[in-house]
Every structure is written in structure tokens, then in C-alpha cells.
Design goal:
123 residues; alpha+beta; 4-stranded antiparallel β-sheet
């Protein structure tokens, strides 16, 4: 049964409602996820990001300089490269990141890689 507040007081009055989604997760140090895409004219550059991740999470991220239209660098969590080679992962991330980012933005991305293995053994 809808609450009384969702019902319009008159037929011509629009009905209003809000859809609220809350995603809670553990706070991460540094406050980034798996990948950070650094735009060419972003307020923070790759060297500053390199110092931040080195101070807060040593040896967990790799900063890769790029020759790209939008991005100057990408910061990649090293554990991802263990699951999927950099040569296959980076083109995917750059293609999708370029769809939403500009040269002035820094975009963080969460990347979930699921490996599927099916093996047959002799009986």
C-alpha cells in the first residue's frame, strides 16, 4: 500500500518519489580502487599520484605513463595484472574510460576479473 505522501492531493499535481541506492564498502587506503585514469589536464598529475600511492600503499600500484588523447597516465593495481596481462587489460580500461572522462578529470574504476577454468582429466 503506497504511503499517503506519495499520493497526489489533486489529479493535476505530479507524483514525486525518490529512488535511493546506498553502496557501503570498506574505506580503502589510498582512497582509490583498482584503477585511476589521470587526464592530461587533471588537477593532480601522475607524479603526485605516484607519491601518494607509494606513501600509502607501497608496491601495490603501478603508474604507467601513456601516449593517449585524453589520459596522461593510468595507475593500475598490480594484483590485476596477475589475473589478466596488462596488454589485454589496459586497452579495455582506456576504451571505457574515454567514454566518460575528459582531459581535466581523474576517474577511478573498480575492476572485477573472474577467471573461468574448465579442465578434463583422464579417468
Amino acid at each position: 500500500m503506497p504511503s499517503k505522501s506519495l499520493l497526489p492531493s489533486s489529479p493535476s499535481e505530479p507524483k514525486r518519489k525518490a529512488d535511493v541506492n546506498i553502496r557501503l564498502s570498506e574505506f580503502e587506503i589510498p582512497p582509490m580502487q583498482d584503477v585511476l585514469l589521470v587526464g592530461k589536464r587533471a588537477p593532480i598529475g601522475p607524479e603526485a599520484i605516484r607519491r601518494m600511492v607509494s606513501a600509502l600503499s607501497p608496491d601495490q600500484y603501478e603508474v604507467i605513463q601513456l601516449d593517449h588523447d585524453i589520459f596522461e597516465a593510468v595507475v593500475l593495481k598490480k594484483s590485476l595484472v596477475k589475473l589478466l596481462p596488462k596488454e589485454k587489460l589496459l586497452p579495455l580500461i582506456l576504451e571505457e574510460g574515454a567514454r566518460i572522462a575528459t582531459e581535466k578529470t581523474v576517474v577511478k574504476a573498480q575492476v572485477n576479473i573472474e577467471i573461468q577454468v574448465s579442465r578434463v582429466v583422464d579417468l
